[in-house]
Amino acid sequence: MQNEYEIMHIDTDIIEETDIKEEITTLLKERNFSQLKSIISDMNPFDIALIMEELPKEKIAIFFRILPKDLAAETFVEIDTDMQEELIHTFSDVELREVFTELYLDDTVDILEELPAGVVKRILKNTDRETRHIINELLQYPEDSAGSIMTTEYVRLNSSLTVADAIAVIRRSGVDKETIYTCYVTDNNRKVMGIVTARMLLTSSPDKVIEEIMETSVIVAKTTDDRESVVTALQKYDFVALPVVDDENRLVGIVTIDDAIDVLQEEATEDIEKMAAITPTEKPYLKMSAWGLFLSRIPWLLLLMISATFTGMIITGFEASLASQAVLIAFIPMLMGTGGNSGSQSSVTVIRALSLDELGLGDIFRVVWKEIRTAILCGGCLALACFIKIWLVDRMLLNNPEITIMVDMVICISLFITVLSAKIVGAILPMLAQAVKLDPAVMASPFITSIVDVLSLIVYFKVATSVLGI
Amino acid sequence: MQNEYEIMHIDTDIIEETDIKEEITTLLKERNFSQLKSIISDMNPFDIALIMEELPKEKIAIFFRILPKDLAAETFVEIDTDMQEELIHTFSDVELREVFTELYLDDTVDILEELPAGVVKRILKNTDRETRHIINELLQYPEDSAGSIMTTEYVRLNSSLTVADAIAVIRRSGVDKETIYTCYVTDNNRKVMGIVTARMLLTSSPDKVIEEIMETSVIVAKTTDDRESVVTALQKYDFVALPVVDDENRLVGIVTIDDAIDVLQEEATEDIEKMAAITPTEKPYLKMSAWGLFLSRIPWLLLLMISATFTGMIITGFEASLASQAVLIAFIPMLMGTGGNSGSQSSVTVIRALSLDELGLGDIFRVVWKEIRTAILCGGCLALACFIKIWLVDRMLLNNPEITIMVDMVICISLFITVLSAKIVGAILPMLAQAVKLDPAVMASPFITSIVDVLSLIVYFKVATSVLGI
B261, A262: Cβ pair inside 8 Å? Predict the structure, then answer.
């Protein structure tokens, strides 16, 4: 027998580059469900979800009912919350049970967390007592904890089984488990004794006893650990799953690498958003309303705008001096901009290193010392370039008589001091934030820039008044 | 028999929280190698690497020789390039062969890419002809391609095997393969026909034929694909490995999820660095010299400083008007800052959405329309807040007579227009960069800020001259 096989390239956009959407629409219109079923049952849940998003609203429920049960459940995980909610409203209780029984519990919990309370209630009413109990427990873990991303569906083995027995256990119960590639050996109190990977089972002789082959030094996470540290551990030890235990070291769940990779992306996005002074949201950009975007952005803009009041006050304070040397005004934006950029570079580098666990609080002096040396190099280079540029361009090319050697020096000395202080502030603030358990990511560009703006103006005017005697 | 087992929590810092470092140093001094060996053979390569970094230089080679062969190889992957190079210099040719035979080929290639040519030559001289051939081929793939992160050590199965046969094949050859959890079914020309997961094998009856159980719709990457798109595919389809094929669809390697997760971290770090106007480097922060940091930062600082020349020219051009209304100067930093922050928010959001594949070029009008509405909300709110603040604080509290209703209005109208244009520019530029195949990440805060600085000054002075008639 020769199966027909189909190779698809990762960059194939299933909707753009194939005529599958048209084909499906036509088949739906003709109500040719058997043909439709045979086409979609070969497809990936992710791609099916993409197609569902393109279908007219009234066709979605019909289309979803054509999917084989397991594929329906997997697809349900991939579609967005709004569509999930709409589908649930069209489900009978039986259908609801069918979909949710097929789901892994961690996916169920992820979905429930986003749905309105009424819908959640209806779903829970349609699960059996034991599952409801587990779901309720999972729902109670704090949002960013290991408990919130773990699944309770793992393979548990007894240490006295043989390899052949263990494989039989997996064959019997493995279908419903999120991963069978790492199995957990526990004692009667559910305490972790060791781990056995599918690789160990497949490469050991069938009559060996689990206790002999299991790996006995196990790295575990606690349910209350930050989910980010779970992901970091999975990554640094190259595991495909990590066991999660309660305070008594009893195994309560596992975190698998496919969930970890999602967390990693989400956390990186969150960090990036915080660095740009945006309140992080979990929704993809195109799903956000303008109002939602406004709400996530305006608090920070207001805060930063108000904090810019100080720069205004400083300038007003030096108005008399500026009036006598109006040429100085023209260089304010360059000074503040370069200072801000220098500070952002340092703060962002330090924030990222902190978040990747490359840096700890104990490194603060090494960091500051490194930044001081870097700042002297950058500041020196910039000051020199600036000095030459002002003389050649502003003085000689644009023929501005107000620019004297002294004015040029005032600008460049200020630039040097600004860069130096910007880099020090940029490196120290994220570490201080970490020390007081704040998220270092908020100490990024916008925040640093506001501080550096004030610093650079003070430096500039102090240098100007003392050098030029104004 | 009862093995002794050891549970370690993920946050345990092996060096800080245990006295293992002292213990190891003492054992090394006493040359008690058997005791030492029994302690470290239970440890993870990652933790052993941490300990090696803390050891005195002259002890490192001795310590490394105590490790069992497979653990030595795994640890060698985890230590940094400098230490790898030093160790290689102490290796005899036999030792060199021992370490590199144990390594997976993709790890070997990663290591070779960082080492100086002379060392690479010596390593290649000590591998057999076939391996050398494969390594040379892998080394030729472009740095960010799928080919550069794939491994050639995967399990290949014949479609006519039974499940029991396939398990036997894995038992025989699986030890040297990077993953046995996804096996690839190919025809005589190495063309991919399907995939079989270890889960399918373990949950199917042993006498079934592979052809009957294999998954025949396979998603593949090409060797020349960007490594980021491979990672995205692994993530969206929840795979543990992805096959990589050449132009004739012949299987040449696989990318496994543990490598993908590293790529993901690296790419996020690169994006963040580019967004902060830093040339990305692969070295961790503490390993970078001040000179290295300087080199990665100075080109952008210089470029941005020179581009700030325009702001100076604009201010100089309006010097006369500013002299008659000196109060306007005080609000320049606030205007430029708020504009820059507004623009950064939009650009960073769009850049991240592009990099997560949530946005395509076709969405540009939806994006701009969304940003315009958000900008009207943000701009309106900021302008109102600013108007009230200036009147209450600057006029009434600080008693500045220069601030009239008209001046206040000039500032707030300029603020509104600046925010609006900043958000539009911030959203469009990353998408244009993507369109002309530039990395959108360079269109982040520093770059946007430079453009918005110029825009805001022009807007401010135009509004001021027309409203105040100066």
Answer: no
- Of A213, A149, A221, A164, give the one whose Cα is nearest residue A185: A213
Burial class of residue A138 (count of CB atoms within 10 Å of its CB; 0-12, 13-18, 19+) = buried
The domain B20-143: what is its CATH number? 1.25.60.10
Whether residue A10 and residue B221 make contact (CB cut-off 8 A), yes or no, is yes
The Cα angle at residue A160 between residues A157 and A164, in degrees rounded to 5? 70
- A59-83: pLDDT as tens digits: 888 888 888 888 888 899 888 888 8
Q: Which fold has domain B156-263?
A: CBS-domain (3.10.580)
CB B196 within 8 A of CB B185: yes
Tell me which of 3.10.450.350, 1.10.357.20, 3.40.50.2300, 1.10.730.10 is the CATH number of domain B308-468.
Answer: 1.10.357.20
Q: Is A1 exposed, middle or buried (0-12, 13-18, 19+ CB in 10 A)?
A: exposed
Q: What is the pLDDT of residues A342-362, one digit of tens each?
A: 998 898 889 888 888 888 888
From chain B, the residues in CB contact with A14 under 8 A are none
Contact residues, chain A, for B171 at CB < 8 Å: 202-203
Domain boundaries, chain A: 20-144, 156-275, 308-468
Whether residues A240 and B257 touch (CB distance < 8 A) is answered with: yes
Neighbouring residues of A285: CB distance < 8 A, sequence distance ≥ 6: B349, B350, B352, B353, B358, B359, B367
Token pair of B90 as six digits: 């102490």
Identify which of B62, B118, B70, B71 has the alpha carbon closest to the alpha carbon of residue B90.
B62
The ipTM, to two decimals, is: 0.77
Give the mutation candidate from A158, A202, A381 for the B interface (greatest B CB count, under 10 A). Answer: A202
Contact A297 B378 (CB under 8 A): yes
Q: Which residues pair with B145 in a beta bridge?
A: B226
Q: Scanning every residue of chain A, which has its alpha carbon at the shortest distance from the alpha carbon of B276?
A: A345
Taking the CB of residue A36, how many other CB atoms lie within 10 A of it? 20
Nearest CA in chain B to A193: B5
B442: closest CA among B452, B430, B451?
B430
Domain A156-275 has CATH 3.10.580.10: yes
Q: Do A286 and B312 touch (CB under 8 A)?
A: no
The Cα B439–Cα B426 span in angstroms is 14
Question: Mind listing the pLDDT tens digit for each residue in B111-164?
Answer: 888 888 888 888 888 888 888 888 888 888 888 888 888 888 888 899 899 998
User: How many whole angstroms separate alpha carbon A128 and alpha carbon B179?
Assistant: 37
* Token duo for residue B241: 């490995």
| Chain A hits for B3, Cβ within 8 Å | 193-194, 211, 214, 216
Third-level CATH fold of A20-144: MgtE N-terminal fold (1.25.60)
| Partner-chain contact B193 A319, CB within 8 Å | no
Burial of A182 (0-12, 13-18, 19+ CB in 10 A): buried
Contact (Cβ atoms closer than 8 angstroms) between residue B202 and residue A167: yes
Q: Token pair for residue B439?
A: 């990395």
CB contact at 8 A, A50 and A75:
no
Q: At what angle do helices B405-435 and B445-468 cross, to 10 degrees?
A: 150
Q: Measure B142 CA to nearest chain A CA, in Å.
A: 18
